[in-house]
UniProtKB/TrEMBL annotation:
Keywords: Oxidoreductase. The keyword Oxidoreductase applies. The keyword Metal-binding does not apply. GO terms for biological process: bile acid metabolic process. CDD domains: SDR_c (cd05233). Belongs to the short-chain dehydrogenases/reductases (SDR) family. Gene3D superfamilies: NAD(P)-binding Rossmann-like Domain. This is NAD(P)-dependent dehydrogenase (Short-subunit alcohol dehydrogenase family). GO terms for molecular function: oxidoreductase activity, acting on the CH-OH group of donors, NAD or NADP as acceptor.
Length: 255
């Protein structure tokens, strides 16, 4: 407990899924969690839930793909907190789009804008808040960042970019004490996966989950909290000499 005592941590895409679970775990470990998401209602509800449980959390409405919103957010946080200790670039979208020659250009642009450009923008404007005392950047990539998934050229390209961008940050800022690492989740039970699969009551949802369980050596989907504890390791001093790394949490799927 208290591995993040007196830390300030920014988490994007905090309203649901892996971001939400991570915000709760970081708050339980003593961090003040700055929860940012484009979903205003759910991100405010999350901050209230953390506060009611005795933790420290604030909610911010943010679209990570919009440069003016990211700069405005970074300025606000600099005014209020001066520095931050952790940045978890977690916001992401995914959608199947068919084979590359059928893949809609707009979908490709949307996914690159949020998943890759959003990670770049947030890192670019928040690294200055880490230069004074160092910090930890955690990027939520995917198993699709190294092994491609069918009919998802936009997502595969974006996440491959996120994995390599992580290494670029690690080598650029190693001497400033800023570490950068990525997480590569397998199939985790979150709203993103429900959107891809449908609910478990529908035939498509059940078939999707059964197929994922079958290809995963551990025989089940992951829980968002199982990704949050990887993020905790990367955020805390427990990983003080780990940088430029990707930690896979996929129940053996890519083993
Ligand atoms: P989710 O859909 O539950 O959460 C994504 C969050 O990001 C939502 O709260 C959404 O409102 C927010 N968001 C989306 N676009 C945004 C934007 N432009 N600006 C700010 N916030 C935005 O999904 P999940 O599963 O928790 O995903 C989190 C991350 O994990 C994503 O980057 C995803 O690609 C990655 N991931 C998830 C896997 C899974 O199986 N669930 C597998 C591999 C990677």
């Amino acid at each position: 407990m208290n591995r993040l005592e007196s830390y300030t941590a920014v988490i994007t895409g905090a309203a649901t899924g892996i971001g939400r679970a991570t915000a709760k775990v970081f708050a339980e470990e003593g961090a003040e969690v700055l929860c940012a998401d484009k979903n205003e209602e759910q991100v405010k509800e999350l901050a209230e839930e953390i506060q009611q449980a005795g933790g420290k959390a604030q909610a911010y409405v943010l679209d990570v793909s919009k440069e003016s919103e990211v700069t405005g957010f970074a300025e606000k946080i600099k005014e209020q907190y001066t520095t931050i200790d952790v940045l978890f670039n977690n916001a992401g979208i995914d959608q199947e789009g068919g084979k590359l020659h059928e893949y809609p250009v707009e979908l490709f642009d949307d996914i690159i804008s949020v998943d890759l450009r959003g990670t770049f923008l947030m890192s670019k404007y928040f690294i200055p808040l880490m230069l004074e005392k160092g910090g930890s950047i955690i990027n939520n990539s995917s198993m699709s960042g190294s092994a491609a998934d069918l009919d998802r050229s936009g997502y595969n390209a974006a996440k491959g970019g996120v994995t390599n961008l992580t290494k670029a940050i690690a080598i650029d800022y190693g001497r400033q004490g800023i570490r950068a690492n990525a997480i590569a989740p397998g199939t985790i039970e979150t709203p993103l996966v429900s959107e891809l699969a449908g609910t478990d009551n529908e035939e498509s949802g059940k078939a999707f989950r059964d197929a994922q369980k079958w290809v995963t050596p551990m025989g089940r989907l992951g829980d968002p909290r199982e990704m949050a504890t990887i993020a905790l390791f990367l955020a805390s001093k427990d990983s003080s000499f780990v940088t430029g790394e990707t930690i896979t949490g996929d129940g053996g799927l890519t083993a």
